[in-house]
Structures are given as C-alpha cells and as structure tokens.
Predict the 3D structure of the following.
Amino acid sequence: MQLTDTQKQVISHEGSPLLVTAGPGSGKTRVLVEKTIKLIKSGTRKILALTFSNKAAEEILERLKSNLSAEEMEYVNIGTFHSFCLELVLDRGNMIGLPASLTVIESEKDKIELLKKILNKVGHQDIKEKSSQSILNKISKYKQKFEYPSEESEDFIYIFEAYNNLMLEHRLIDYDDILFYAYRLLNEKPQVARMYNRIYKTVFIDEAQDLNEAQYDIIYSLCINLKNIIMIGDEKQSIYGFNGSSSHYMTERFLNDFNPKHIIMKENFRSTQQIIKASMGIKNYADNIGMYPLEGEVLIVRKTNEHLEAEWIVEKILEQVKNGNPWVENTLSYENIAVLARNRYVFQELEKSLKKHNIPYNFRTTTKLLESVTQEMQIFENGLKFMTNPHNQITKRTLDDVILFDDRLSVNDKKYLLTARPKSGVEVPVQVFESIVKAWSIILHDNESFIQALKEIENTINSIEEDEYIKQNLELLFKDIEMWKSHWRRYCTLVVTGNRNLIHFKNQMALGKTSYYNHEGVTLSTVHMAKGLEYDVVFIMGMCEGIFPDYRATDHIQLQEERNNMFVALTRAKRVCYLSFPDFRFMPWGSEKKQKPSRYLIEISEALQEEADIN
C-alpha cells in the first residue's frame, strides 16, 4: 500500500521536534518503521525508540529486521521505558552511589518480607496495624512522583527511608526505583545526558498519550537539547489515568517545552465504515477519514440476563467460525475473534458457556512473572536468585528454611550453594534434590547451559516416576520445568550467544520480556489489556450503566477516560462489532437487578442513524 501525503510528511520531516497525532488504524507503526529506515539509510547515527509494552517494541523490531541488515540494526535501540532506564541505572548507577550488581525484585512476597523487618522496629500501633500492601502502595506513589514524603508522619518517613536503604543493602531495586534512579542520574550528572545526546541523534516516543509525570521528566532531561525528538500518540486513546498517565504531557507540556511541528494523521486504514461512524459517536472528531471501502457491521443486542447474553455470543461465534462472515474475506478462526468487557468479572457467564461448548479461549492478562508452584522448582528458583544476588537475605532465609549449607564457606564463594543438602522433614526426594544441586553446578559453570541444567532435573524425575510422591506431583513438576524452559528460550531469541548471563536473564524476566502469551482460541480481554490489538470480529459485552461507564467514574476527568475506553474498545474491531447488554444482572447477594443500557449505546445508535432495541 502506498504512503499517503500525510505519512510522507511525517517521514520526511527532520531538523526540529515533531508531534504526530495518529488515530487508530492510521499506520502509526508503519510510519515509525519507514522513518527509522530512511534515517538509517541516510547515514543518521543511532536512533532510540521508547514505547510502553514489550509487544509494541517487538513488533517494531521485527518489521525493521526485515528491512535492515544486521549491521544497520546495530544503530537502532528499541525498548520500553523501563528496559532503557534499567540499562542506564545498571551501567552508571555507581555515579550516584548505587552498589554494583543490582537485581530487580520480582516477588511481592519478598517486598512484604523486607517491609516487615522495618515495621518490627516501629513501635506505634497505628502504623503496624496498617496492611503491609497499603504501606508499599503508599511508598510506591511517592517514588513514582519522584517526591520525598516530607509532609507525612515521622513514622512513615522512617519506614520510607529504612525500606529504600534496606533494598539497596540487599542489592535490590523495584520497578519504581528503575525510573527514579534513571531520573537522578540524568539530572544530578548532566554529563550522562550529554553522553546520550552524542549517541542518539533521534528519539521516538511511541504511545505518547500514556506518559506519566515521571516518564515525561526523564524524556525532558534526556532530550532538552535534542532537535530530532518525535512524539507519536492519540489523546483519544488515553486510558491509563489510574497509573498517573495523561495526554496532557503530549498535548501541553511537550508543546510548551519543545515547540514541535504538529502533524495529524487522519486516515483510518483498519476499520470498516460502520465502525468508524460508531466511534465518531463516542469521540466526535469530524476530520477522521475512513479509508476502508467496506461498510462492515455494528449491531446492538439486548438479552434478558447475563446467561442469555453469554449464550448468544457463543452461538454467534460458532456460527461465524462455521459459516464465515460476509464482511470478512478469509476463513474466520477463533483467533480472529475477541470479546471485550470493561471489567474481568463481566466474563463469568461467558466462560461457563465457552467451556460448555468446548470453544478454546485465552485471557489477556497483565504481564506478571510466574513463580514455580512445586517445592522442588521453588528451591531451584531461589537458588537462581541467590546465584545472581548473594546479598539478598530474603532469598537466603527462604533457602535456609529447607536447606543446610556448609557455613565454613563464604556466601560469596560460588561453591557455597553446591554444599546444599536437604533439612530433615523436607519432602523432596533425595535424588531430585541432588539433581537440583547438579543443575546449579551446570549453570554456575556455564550460564548458556540453562536448558541442559533443567534436563538434569527432568531426567531424574523420569527415572523415579514410580515414586509415590513424584506420581502425585508429576504434572505440576513438568509444568514448572517447561515454564523455565520457555523463559530461557524466549531470552535466547532476544540476546545473542556470548552476551547471555544469569543476572541479565533474571532482570529481563522481571521486566516481562521473556513471558510468552498464549494466542490460541477466542481472546477475552478487558479494554485496558486490548490496547494496540485488532481483530476481525469484536464483541463488547456488559454494556450497562455502572459497568461501562464504570460506576466509580464520577468527575469530568474520569468520565472522559471512560469515554476514551469505549473509543479504544470499538476501534479494536476491523470489520464487525457486536455490542450486547442484559436487562437483568444477578447480584452477589442472590437477587436480580434491573439494568440501564449504557449511554454509549444511545450515542452509537444515533451516530449510525439506526434504531436499536435499547429503551
């Protein structure tokens, strides 16, 4: 497909900051890729592109790899904000007094254990009675804003300082620290920012409407003297206000600070005409141009209750997979279909119906690090943590609960871990325990032999498969082993042989880079998790007042974000969108409650100039 005049304008622009407003389906990723290729081919030095998800970064990288040589790819650095900032902190952290060999804390349990050590020293009951998680959340909010809690109580200030100091004592940093320490480096050590300005002559910021204050401050510190900074985003898709994100940083701060040229990409190449009309009913942007020739379909469906709504969706899915859809040229598979909802609990009846009809489905969830389930692989996992960070006393205590070590050796001695033997009462079969220690030995000798180490454990389990304890845990053990294999294989696709090491692997895991997402079957997703995705056929269910928009949205900003959520949900559909709602919902206390159709349904039916069974 040929580039439009607007797309060409973005690609050819250079020499001054640029803001690109790119609506859904406007070819934003293609433009970013084409502009990068043009810059590299014309001899521009290194390019830095920052985005918000590993998936978005990978998509851009894959497209570039098919157009640039391996040598040319060396001039491109594409990643998430957190991955870029972590690299900066690990490489230069010593300049602001950070210890070497920091690792990212992966487990909420470990954070709580660290906090409890602090709370035990605080005598005031009002602090101790608060939940550990709520205190961690409060600490996190201050870190995210790069603020010191000077207005808080003396007890909280003590907890805040002691917790952060203890993290560093254990050579640990968390997600918030990554950005905080990167910001400190760029501001306290201006030579660091100057160094990056020499390296990167062009910086792209993708999905700029999702920036929060901390991320914008980092960009400002990094790019204030840079001419070629390009922000690409769409304020109508700003839906992460609960995380402090706001399109204000793109539409106001960036304009004031950098005075960029502003180009609007109006064309929509993704969605059919009816979907564009419906989305314009939600966010009235009269200059949007629908480029897809097909009319498509948007249908509003009313059912008596949630059960009948779910059954209708399932019947429609089965019918379309069997017979196809007139608006979809190719064979329609389950993978081309998504069901979206404002909140996850809306899917309860649908899940039952999908299972009843044997329809495969997957849930799009937040990228959370999976932890081993079985005791054997938990021991293996904690051994890995200890190898990468022997200063982490939380891991050491966890190991000490089940393992005896030869304490004549220093914990920093590589052989220390290999002296492990199980404590009496630990259920792990001796042969399996010995295979775990052997696996550690293999990894210590050569990090690249990670799969071989896992096979050592796997082969031992296979050799004693008839053991009663192993029989009971066999399936879970193999699932845990396969999970670790999957993480390592994914890591190997990201990092070339010779550059792989255990610390880097564990940090990449903590950033979610090694997670594998299951795409099989119909996708069920909240609107927030569907951002950036597209499907031929989309169902949006539970379209009732109080659900969509959410009843918790009360002020203008919150209601505006709910409207953005609806806009994002509609524009995930390429050809067809079905919107459904029940007249009655079952409440947790057992009774049925009459529902009011979402205000958005009325606006959509008016935009389509069609009557719908809503009133």
